[in-house]
Amino acid sequence: MYIIMITPECAPVAKVGGLGDVIQGLSRELGLRGNAVEIILPKYDCMRYDRIWGLCKTYSDLWVPYHDQHIHCDVYFGFVEGLKCFFIESHSDKNFFDRGLYYGHHDDCERFAFFCRAALEFMLKSNKHPDIIHCHDWQTGLVPVLLFDLYASMGMTHQRVCYTLHNLKHQGVNGEHILRQVGLNPADYMNQDRLQDNFNHQAINLMKGGIVYANFVTTVSPRYAEEIKNTDLGCGLQHTLHVHSGKFGGVLNGIDYNVWNPEIDPHIAGRYSVETIDDKYRNKKALRRRLWLRDDFKPVVAVVSRLDHQKGVGLIKHAVQHCLGHGCQFVLLGSSPDPNVNNEFWALKHALNDNPDCHLEISYNEELAHLIYAGADMILVPSAFEPCGLTQMIAMKYGTVPVVRNTGGLADTVFDADYAPRPYHERNGYVFNDLDNPGLESALNRAVGMWNVYPQYFRELMANGMRYDYSWNHPAEHYLNIYNYITE
Asked: What CA–CA distance (Å, rounded) separates 255 from 287?
């Protein structure tokens, strides 16, 4: 099967969150199963060009319609971790993708609407006819709309679209001028059955367009699929998802065990497996040395996270003080797109600067993340909502016990050591329900208590987590079933 991914991110070259990891892991697994996979991305100026092999211009003079004119583009090709990637570079005074940031500009909807049109125009002009176009998040929501209402009449008739929702917090709500920009007549789309936003009837919703027009819609865990269809986590799209529920389902993300695997990880101090779990503690020592923590008989609790309100920043701040007051060491790696949140954590870092049991790293460092996963005893994920979450799955592979809130993909992957309705060999962490300090404390106290009082049981939890298979093997099988279903 020939599959093209159209996406705003792909790790490690363009990564803001889990979306980038999903593109890399799923594409690699689909390729290993004998499918031809290509990825189309914007050519951002802030990408990690050192992770692209053989980058070269492969298509010149691509003229992309934009309002009543055309914008000139070039397309570059290169390999990213062995994956075939095409990068669209626009030559426009608007500098759509030369901003130094991936997202966060006032004209993001305009930028990614242009990218949708450019990706399809490139496919048309270069005679690419995939069986499946797999689109991701609101940034590519216009692809199925344009494909079926414009490009089908130009000969792109047999492609089918799978559309994956990674996070409904961001939907691409904007004015109808976005439709005129890409060559669509707003009058044809400003109704509730198509792109009109469910609440702001003067606006269009790009994510809604993707849901309405795609042949199949997925999200990144079964629990999140239920939550966004039936609760306010749907952020206004609940009715749309109910209308299209016959083509909607949740497929749990995987993680790439070629990248996240303590048996082969080049970024950690000592490699290990479930059979050699004692070697994990070499990484605990290395982590303490690197972060200037004292070497003491204490558990290390870690957070590796983007610091925004979705991730429970208030609970993370509370957890720092709670852990330090209850005989733990605390390590944090993360930063926030919100300057106010960043400033709060910098202030906390300065206040705790001389504490030998705490290190807050207000940035993101991929290599350090590997060492934290390997060196910590527990990982904390207190999310307000979590579509899937990769952190807890990575942590389990490294024998680091997750302490998580009962939501989304966290609920689909972490099963409480004390209360899960599962046999003991399937329990792998600690779960709390309420998004408040007492809920967080109850789970942390149970985890730390087990570490201190019943170390042999805590080690069984570590081993249980390491034995789970959260690779891309099962999700890729589900996606291939979906692809086959919509092409038949």
From this structure: 23
Q: Which residue pairs from 349-352 have beta carbons closer than 8 angstroms and sit at least 24 positions apart in sequence? A: 352/320, 352/324
User: Distance between CA atoms of 136 and 16, rounded to whole angstroms?
Assistant: 14
Residue 402: helix, strand or coil by DSSP? Answer: strand
E runs forming strands in 68-151:
69-80, 83-91, 132-136
CB 136 within 8 A of CB 166: yes
Query: Is 26 within 8 Å of 83 (Cβ atoms)?
Result: no
Residues 9-32 as b/e (b if ≥16 CB within 10 A, e otherwise) read bbbbbbbbbbbbbbbbbbbbbbbe
Closest CA to 80 of 33, 3, 11, 2: 11
What is the band of 222 on the pLDDT scale with cuts at 50, 70, 90?
A: very high
What digits encode the pLDDT tens for the residues 263-296?
999 999 999 999 999 999 999 999 999 999 999 9
User: What letters, b where the CB count within 10 A reaches 16 and e where it falls short, cover 238-266?
Assistant: bebbeebeebbebbbbbbbbebbbbeebe
The answer to pTM > 0.90 is yes
Token pair, residue 137, equals 């998040």
Ordered by where they begin, the domains of the chain are: 2-254+473-487 (3.40.50.2000), 274-467 (3.40.50.2000)
How many angstroms separate the Cα of 447 from the Cα of each of 200, 294, 407, 432?
A: 45, 21, 19, 11
Supply the pLDDT for residue 18: 84
pLDDT in tens, 59-85: 999 999 999 999 999 999 999 999 999
- Residue 70 neighbours by CB distance under 10 Å: 12
Take residue 213 and report the two structure tokens written for it: 């027009």
Tokens standing for residue 2: 């020939």
Cβ atoms 327, 448 nearer than 8 A: yes
283 with 277: CB under 8 angstroms? no
DSSP helix/strand/coil, 119: helix
Q: 209: helix, coil or strand?
A: helix
Nearest to 107 by CA among 70, 139, 75: 139
Q: So what's the pLDDT on residue 411? A: 97
DSSP annotation of 203: S
Q: Per residue in 152-183, pLDDT tens?
A: 999 999 999 999 999 999 999 999 999 999 99
pLDDT digits (tens, 9 = 90+) for 405-422: 999 999 999 999 999 999
Residue 16: band (very low, low, confident or very high) from pLDDT cuts 50, 70, 90: confident
**In this predicted structure, what is the pLDDT of residue 177?**
96
Q: Are 111 and 105 in contact (CB under 8 A)?
A: yes
